[in-house]
Amino acid sequence: MPPRTSVPSPVRRPLVVTGDGDLLDDLLRLAAAGGTEVELAPDPAAARTRWLPAPLVLVGVDQAQPCLRARLPHRPRLVLVGHSGQLDPGWQVAELIGAEHVATLPAAEPWLVDRFAEHGADGPVGPAARVVAVLGGRGGAGASILAGGLAVSAARARLRTLLVDADPLGGGLDLVLGWEQLEGLRWPALSDADGRVDAPALVRALPSRGDLVVLSWDRGDLLALPAPAMAATLDAARRGRDFVVVDLPRQLDDAAVTALQAADRAYVVVPAELRATAAAARVVAAAATHCTELAVIVRGPAPGRLRAAEVARALGLPLGGTLRPEPAIVRGLERGEAPAASGRGPLAALCQRIVAELTGVPSAGAA
Ligand SMILES: Nc1ncnc2c1ncn2[C@@H]1O[C@H](COP(=O)(O)OP(=O)(O)O)[C@@H](O)[C@H]1O
Ligand SMILES: [Mg+2]
């Protein structure tokens, strides 16, 4: 993957997903009446990267089934739109793709003009946050440590950072940071969120220190994470933060799929061992259908002298980096010290490079 020193931030205009020329003509006319331009995507593949960042998404009835098949995540402010007569049985598919409204033309024209005016005139929107996802090729691979290190490194570079724990079985990412005593909301209190999450409010409610905010599981009864809660959280974070790290479970549930689809890049952490590589192949196969920007991080030691490049080649992925074993991290964890907090060592160096590549913001080195 070529290093990117500065990444253009996505333009945040309403997104129209349709391959129907007549419908498109009508929607462009209505958007103009609402005083906004729109982003166009003829199909879900073209829509994918703009799906969650867009302030409003209109899906033409011709693309409803394709969007469903593509498993695009549920998101707020999603409207299914078509001409009268086309939309039968529109409500059923609308519910399946998570549309909040079904707009039938021409009756809904004034309503749509209002929506375009409301969401197109967002004014000068700041650049959306970069989202990076991390998952382990096998249990204990070091994914959560890398996720913590990335978040700590981003916050050290003065990026407003959100670390999201999406692994219900991971034991709580707040523990990785040594933050388990910190006051603030955890997932169980937020997980019925499905509408628009107010980004500043979300951030105020979560445990935080400086520029780093964490949305973690607690150690209470296990709950599943609803995909709409993840979508709403990432939607809010994209608007209110600079950098988002999501620690994913290896078994991808709907919330994890939502996060992967929202990610600008995902890393699979794989110990440099044959069996770990074999296990990782399955994780990679599942993840690759939801994220094209996938790379592998190989973690030592390599007891059989397996080389990082060989692991990456076996998985058919670019090598995103390597990690030497770092006993100091493990000792630090026991003392409640967050990974990469000193800014020194192989993990910190790797995390600083990744943050810089994704954001263009240079790293803050050792303290
Ligand atoms: N960079 C590292 N250096 C040394 N040990 C590590 C490193 N990363 C992880 N570990 C060890 O592996 C264990 C599991 O890491 P963790 O990040 O929780 O894995 P995962 O989230 O992939 O299950 C840690 O508790 C630690 O002992
Ligand atoms: Mg983990």
From TrEMBL:
**One Pfam family name from the record?**
Rv3660c_N
The record's PANTHER family line, in alphabetical order, gives:
SEPTUM SITE DETERMINING PROTEIN, SEPTUM SITE-DETERMINING PROTEIN MIND HOMOLOG, CHLOROPLASTIC-RELATED
Q: Which GO terms describe its molecular function?
A: ATP binding; ATP hydrolysis activity
One GO term (biological process): negative regulation of cell division
Q: Where is the Rv3660c-like CheY-like N-terminal domain?
A: 17-122
Q: Under which name does UniProt file this protein?
A: Septum site-determining protein minD
Q: Which GO terms describe its cellular component?
A: cytoplasmic side of plasma membrane; cytosol
Gene3D superfamilies given in the database record: P-loop containing nucleotide triphosphate hydrolases (3.40.50.300)
